[in-house]
Amino acid sequence: MTTATKTETARIAALREANVPRGVSLGTGLYAVRASGATLWDADGREFIDFAGGIGVLNTGHTHPRVVRAVQEQAANLTHSCFQVVGYEGYVTLAERLNKLVLGDFAKKTLFLSSGAEAVENAVKIARAATGRPAVIAFEHGYHGRTLLTMTLTSKEVPYKSGFGPFAPAVYRAPLPYALRGVSTEEALAGLRDVIEQIGAENVAAMIIEPVLGEGGFLPMPDDFLRGIRAECDRTGALMIADEIQSGFGRTGKMLAMEHSGVVPDLTTTAKSLAGGLPLSAVTGRAEVMDAPIVGGLGGTYAGNPLAIAAAHAVLDAFEQDDVLAQGERLAAKVRAVLGDLKAKHAQIAEVRGLGAMLAFELVKDAEMTPDADAATKIVDGALERGLILLKTGPYGNVIRILVPLTANSQELERGLGALEAAVGAVLA
Ligand SMILES: Cc1ncc(COP(=O)(O)O)c(C=O)c1O
Prior knowledge:
This protein is α/β, with parallel strands linked by helices. About 40% of the residues lie in helices and about 15% in strands. Keywords: Aminotransferase, Pyridoxal phosphate, Transferase.
């Protein structure tokens, strides 16, 4: 390729190869320049419908006008002071909003951080400080981040843990119900009790569960299972942490997925769609638990940055004033109908599952449910060729997940679903 014909994408890709480590993968190979709603334009001016939403960050869509306005206004006034040095009201009032929003009829407090992993790290620190115990139980197929502790909590070895050991101590893993793959809620709870027995109930600080697994394949946890974990926490004195980082802020049809079961966790971690594209995460929980760490024990230079806090207020305003939940409900019904039709046509789609608009389908090769990761990759690639950004998920890489903004307009949704249908039709029999 001569310089004259070289695309912008190729030019940036070459720069990237020379300057950015390969460990940071780039699924689409695209470089974004601009985005709005559920539409994204790349460096070569190509237009794409975005069903990935920056991995679940954009439930209210790209460059939501409320978010843009709030960030612009905030940027003109105060971008940073570090909340531990000079506070600002937005942090405090956002904490108040999250304390009201998270389930639980008791006093709550909220700590802000920057990334999801940081929120999970802090939830574990707080649980250890509150209980004086070391052990944390995570679950099979769970994903909690890439830092040392959260990578240890994460189940999948490749690519998240390969070469990065030794891992953090006092992390244990219990089974998880996965009906399609033959693990029932009863078996999973029996496995959990067994793990507790081995650790010693008096040593367990916390159990951490995603109410709908994100990277683990969009598996909604049965209400009985969540109730079972709650019961084990009550029995042992451990704290229940709900990791709502991917399932939160309207994705499942409620503000938080735990609302579906009514099970009340002690601590909740949120991030991603909380701030509509700005880096912000939170730990919300029982006031006395949140106050367990000593003064100065929590924080971070950028944690709860004013721009991100302003963005989160705008996101919550959008939910309250523009009824984003109702928009999500209508969108979820359309997506579910299309996925249902695809399942009826293709035997390789073993299951369509999810909660609200957190929807996915799992691909298999045969009646033995052998995972078909290859078909999933081909569908994602075929979708991209048709102008749709799509993501895989699941422990076996054979699940296609839909994370389209809940605010996508009907043309965006139709174009995206049309490309999805065409890509699936081209790959599956
Ligand atoms: C459930 C869950 N927890 C934690 C994380 C980690 O968040 P971050 O990538 O912002 O550190 C993720 C990210 O995908 C997630 O889905």
